[in-house]
Amino acid sequence: MAARIAKRAKRLQPASGEAARKELESKLAEVLQSRANANSVFDILEYLESENDGDVQAAIRTCSKLFESLLEKGELYIGDLPSEDEALPDTTGAEDKYKIWMRHRYNSCVACMVDLLHHTSLQVQELALCILMKFIVLEGKFPLEAAKWKDSYRFPRKLLKLVVRGLLQEEKHSSSLISRFQEYLEHDDVRYYTMVFTNETFQNVKEALPVPLQNNVFSLLSSINMPEECELANFLVAQKEKCDEWKPAKLKEHKRVFERVWMNFLKNKLSVSLYKKVLLILHESILPHMIKPTLMIDFLTAAYDIGGAISLLALNGLFILIHQHNLEYPDFYRKLYSLLDPSVFYVKYRARFFHLANLFLSSTHLPVYLVAAFAKRLSRLSLTAPPQVLLMIIPFICNLIRRHPACRPLIHRPDAGGDVTSDPYIMEEQDPAKSRALESSLWEIEALQNHYYPNVVRAANVISRNLSSQESEISELLELSSYELFEKEMKKKFKSVPLEFEAVQGLLGKKQDITAEHFTL
Fold first, then answer.
1. What is the value of pTM for the model shown?
2. 53 and 178 fall within a common domain
């Protein structure tokens, strides 16, 4: 019988536009009015495959109304659903046969909705997502399956698993749809099971994750806002009683699965752009919510050893592990020293890098040779740095000397070489202990006193005076841009402008030119 109905449904040619909406309303009324019109469900489901986006949205809304009513009335089969091709026992009554048949139609509707998460229209995708989440609420209120475990009680895990798989597409990016799903992640139960099912994605994929899937997983995980309170009670599926043993109600379980899903995700070979995105949020959105943040040591140290922008971004995470979790990194300052090259002045993470470098070099227990090496290397790099960077670098160097008075010989060594050729400092040396920085001087800062930009000249002049003990505030200078400098200069108003001009006389510009009597310019 079901096969005959399916063949009949395939022969139907759905209408379009206003006619389609009217037909859908008519079919809905027929099904809800009498079980004798149950076959009209096929006509409704047929519109879910329409090529017209408006008709598809109308069909989605119709399916929502239909199955919401059937779930509330208890007209869907509850329990382990027999296969549609399986012959039912003779003892099965007409009531059960109808409910089994309608439960299969509901499953077909859900499958179509999941497919629509891949639709070309974002409006169709979002509507299908909202209806699927509505079905989750309804199934939680009117369960279709008997609970087998306490932690799955009253929550339709299978349906949410289908939704998560629909979001984590392997062929294309679905970040816009995931952004729409973010509002549901505020619910503790949805958040917990979403992380569980996302983690299962890595177990099912044995090869390297496709780039679109990597980006979708990152978009989903980075959308998760972990709760701060120990008692969790914001559930999408309402619970009739307090669930002390239910995992989604425990903050510790959230942290455990959060830690597991991120660790498994980061074990994969990620693209460079995604690698940077992870490092950008690691210190604020990941490490604070892990039970054992030290599990990230290998990932962060490997990133720190890569070099370039990735090493700069790894500094935030390493800073947390070193200062809060007693991470020992013997070559940390040596690596930080090697990161100081001309490119560090031009990367977009410059402000973050120098903010952290300032923190790392703030300790008064650092050896003097190390601080001197940093001050000297920055001083040498300042010769080719842009003005907006110099306004930050010069106070940065002066602060290092203020914190470590033993470095003052760098600015009080009159017999030191005043150029590159006579300078004992070895710029190419990667080990600060062997750079001979303490034997040198900061003649580069003195050279900047002849800079073309007056503000740089004023900043460099401080090196020629007695250095005060009060440190300069550099936080406002970290993100200074050339555009801001230009705008500041443009807004300056001058009462008078000094000029030196002498009018040219004569054809050849000579004052005593004989032609000047006859030709004047």
1. 0.81
2. no
